[in-house]
Amino acid sequence: QLQLVESGGGLVQPGGSLRLSCAASGFSLDYYAIGWFRQAPGKEREGVSCISNTGGSIHYADSAKGRFTVSRDNAKNTVYLQMNSLKPEDTAVYYCAAARGYHVQAMCLSVAGSYWGQGTQVTVSA
Questions:
Q1: For the chain, how long is the longest CA-to-CA vector?
Q2: Predicted pLDDT at 17
Q3: Which among 99, 101, 61 is positioned nearest to 81, based on CA atoms?
Q4: Residues 6+ away with beta carbon under 8 Å from 44
Q5: Cα-based torsion angle of the residue sequence 121, 21, 114, 122 in order, rounded to the nearest 10 degrees
């Protein structure tokens, strides 16, 4: 069964950090770009960061630049999103998705993915 599973979400105070993980099972991420997306209540899902299959190309949304870092370990079939200096407006359900054939910017902007995880809640609140 092809599956993506996110983990690492939780409740954190403003200014804090979290590291999200996206682990794949049933298929290899070697040939897939991975995107991190988020959806806040009442808002559309948006791209946060997308990374190419080799890690050589990365896109960040303006809201993530300078605070979030995406990385991947293909040997572990896992992609990470390190989130620092978290703000209340970062509160959302965070999803990862895998796609082939997309440039990373296009993947993020079009919220594209062939496989999606179930999401992990991130809440930033004092």
A1: 41
A2: 98
A3: 61
A4: none
A5: 10
